[in-house]
Write a structure and sequence with these properties.
Layout (H helix, E strand, L loop, with lengths): L4 H15 L12 E11 L9 E6 L8 E4 L4 E7 L8 E3 L23 E6 L5 E6 L4 H4 L6 E6 L9 E10 L15 H5 L7 E4 L5 E6 L3 E8 L6 E5 L5 E5 L2 E7 L5 E3 L4 E7 L7 E6 L6 E9 L27 H6 L2 E8 L7 E4 L2 E4 H8 L3 E3 L2 E2 L8 E2 L3 E9 L5 E5 L5 E8 L5 E3 L12 E4 L4 E8 L3 E7 L2 H5 L3 E6 L1
Parallel strand pairs: 1-4, 3-8, 9-12, 11-19, 20-26, 21-24, 25-33
Antiparallel strand pairs: 1-2, 4-6, 5-7, 7-8, 9-10, 12-17, 13-16, 13-18, 14-15, 14-17, 18-19, 20-23, 21-22, 26-31, 27-30, 27-32, 28-29, 28-31, 32-33
This protein binds CU-O-CU linkage and copper (II) ion.
CU-O-CU linkage (C2O) binds next to strand 5 and strand 32.
Length: 486
């Protein structure tokens, strides 16, 4: 299909950039990749003359699109050309524990100049992404992230074009300089996290994606921001939501307010394009309360021949992956755990345990930069939050007692959301509607302030897995723990 070339452009550019470095030749045949992390420059702002110094995979922001096939091995030979240790985490993949890329837990950090070969067989098709899991709050903010698509949830004739849309907000000045002075700023860490002032889609101030009248398009939205919860809509179009966090959901129309995507979450949309050549469909982001035009789908006069085929008229859904069903009886037998989130601005910790030692909130904040706790513990504990037997159905109540939203991510597994409850303005407990999420398997869930979300999963992937807030500053300042499947 001609439109597949849209992606090949990315890998050709990656090839070209690696040729500049004779020491490192890219061989991206099949699902074998070579990937670097290194310093590079990128054009992130509207003025093409303004360049930004970034850290990037294969010198590209976002990094090159990696494509694998469900059930087939993918091999990524990675070399760290940065002067800081790093790793790669394959976000959302139900991966072998040894390949999960968590520095200090599933592997030692990859030192400058060293390499590491990641090798895994993705069990699920869908939209995933990759990023460092060492000093994530700095390394992602400098540009280290990319999309990983696992094919196998649709047939080539289902979509005329398939576009990842990777959204990030940058804290950057109009000279293109990333604000480095505020890395590690405790004010950000105690509040919402590092929010940027410039939004890019696929590393561009205004992304323009070509579409044709009558075409059926798949858009794969990925939020790679450190902390910004985004909300996207398309002007004059009624997209269908077809997947969340890589896993298919029954197709459902997205309301005019758009779809909320927290840091690390993904949403796949299907859009049937109707328009005249030259029309521009706006990609709109409204998280700040303003209607920000972040990019465009530009209607060209290319028209697909299959436009009138009957299967074009309705879309019954992506082919679901086979995730373990979560049976009620199994849940009754399995473990139940609570994860209480405390701390942050306006509810500062009175005390907490850090590295096994009880200390007051002031010492935690000033001496150890810890501002948040899970069950009274700041940062990684010696003991896991829970240990599950392989195959055990586990229920976890995520209880947000802070005044800030959090995007809780669990490694190696996808989970169901059983319920959401919160407080209304009078402080009464209210149960909220799960909406699209009632049918979803997710790897990251957004909690509002004072909200409790109950999740359930079958712990079927052996190993030690992280569970943390994907607002990366929150993770760095306390909101990270782990569980073990034995
Ligand atoms: Cu996307 Cu623990 O990470
Ligand atoms: Cu958080």
């Amino acid at each position: 299909m001609p439109n597949r070339r849209v992606f090949l452009v990315g890998s050709t550019a990656a090839l070209a950039s690696s040729l500049v470095m004779p020491s490192y030749v890219k061989a991206d045949t099949g699902t074998r990749y070579r990937l670097t992390a290194e310093r590079a420059t990128a054009t992130l702002l509207e003025d093409p003359a303004v360049k930004t110094d970034v850290w990037a995979y294969d010198r590209l922001v976002p990094g090159p699109l990696l494509r694998a096939r469900k059930g087939e091995e993918i091999v990524i030979e990675f070399i760290n050309l940065l002067d800081q240790p790093t790793t790669i985490h394959w976000h959302g993949i139900r991966i072998d524990n040894a390949m999960d890329g968590v520095a200090g837990m599933t592997q030692p950090a990859i030192m400058p100049g060293e390499s590491f070969t990641y090798r895994f067989t993705p069990p699920d098709a869908g939209t995933y992404w990759y990023h460092p899991h060492n000093r994530s709050w700095e390394q992602l903010a400098r540009g280290l992230y990319g999309t990983l698509i696992v094919d196998g949830d649709s047939d080539p004739e289902d979509f005329d074009r398939d576009y990842p849309i990777v959204a990030d907000d940058w804290r950057i000045d109009d000279q293109g300089l990333i604000d480095e002075a505020s890395f590690g700023n405790l004010g950000d860490w105690a509040h919402a996290g590092r929010l940027g002032n410039e939004l890019t889609l696929n590393g561009k101030a205004y992304e323009r994606l070509e579409v044709g009248d009558g075409e059926r398009i798949r858009l794969r939205l990925v939020n790679t921001a450190n902390a910004r919860i985004m909300r996207f809509a398309l002007s004059g179009q009624k997209p269908l939501l077809i997947a969340l966090d890589g896993q298919s959901v029954p197709p459902a129309e997205i309301e005019d307010e758009g779809i909320v995507i927290a840091p690390a979450q993904r949403a796949d949309l299907l859009v049937d394009i109707r328009g005249e050549p030259g029309d521009e469909i706006e990609i709109i982001e409204t998280s700040s309360g303003n209607r920000l035009v972040a990019g465009y789908l530009v209607v060209s006069n290319s028209k697909t021949l299959s436009n009138s085929a009957p299967e074009r008229q309705s879309f019954t859904g992506l082919k679901p992956n086979s995730l373990p069903a979560i049976e009620n009886e199994a849940l009754d037998r399995g473990g139940r755990y609570d994860l209480v989130m405390s701390g942050g601005a306006m509810r500062f910790l009175a005390s907490g345990i850090y590295k096994g030692e009880e200390m007051d909130g002031r010492t935690l904040a000033q001496t150890h930069q810890q501002l948040w706790t899970f069950n009274g513990i700041a940062g990684m504990a010696d003991e896991p939050l829970f240990k599950a037997q392989e195959g055990e159905a586990v229920r976890i109540r995520l209880i947000n007692e802070t005044l800030w939203p959090h995007a809780i991510h669990l490694h190696g597994h996808h989970f169901r959301i059983l319920s959401r409850s919160g407080l209304d303005s009078a402080g009464n407990s209210v149960v909220s509607d799960l909406g699209h999420e009632s049918q979803a398997f997710r790897d990251t869930v957004l909690l509002a302030r004072n909200e409790t979300v109950e999740i359930a999963l079958v712990a079927d992937n052996p190993g030690k897995w992280m569970l943390h807030c994907h607002m990366l500053e929150h993770q760095a300042s306390g909101m990270g723990t782990w569980f073990e499947v034995v």
